[in-house]
Amino acid sequence: QVQLVESGGGLVQAGGSLRLSCAASGSIFSIDTMGWYRQAPGKQRDLVAAITSGGSTNYADSVKGRFTISRDNAGNTVYLQMNSLKPEDKAVYYCDAAVVAYSDYAPEDYWGQGIQVTVSS
After folding, report:
1. What is the pLDDT of residues 99-117, one digit of tens each?
2. Residue 43, CA distances (Å) to 35, 38, 54, 90 in order
């Protein structure tokens, strides 16, 4: 029904940059908030950044000033520009979207498969 496809992960040296993309497709009426979460081995899944349909953003303190979340004009694709990457940024990054499907009354969370980001020192 709804699919989130992530791309842009990989291996980068400390201080480098990566850009993650997440595109939502399917039977979608609208999408409210979209965001990125990350999870390292042995750790909980934590919010990295989120953006509402109106463009309001929130960031984890650990990434403020380094990461930027954005959204395309249609509202179905979210990006995460990651600069000045640190080894502690290494994790699997997951895309999340609050989607209102045509058959739904209220938004429901959908998740991508996750994409690996590795930062070497």
Report:
1. 998 877 889 999 999 999 9
2. 19, 9, 31, 12
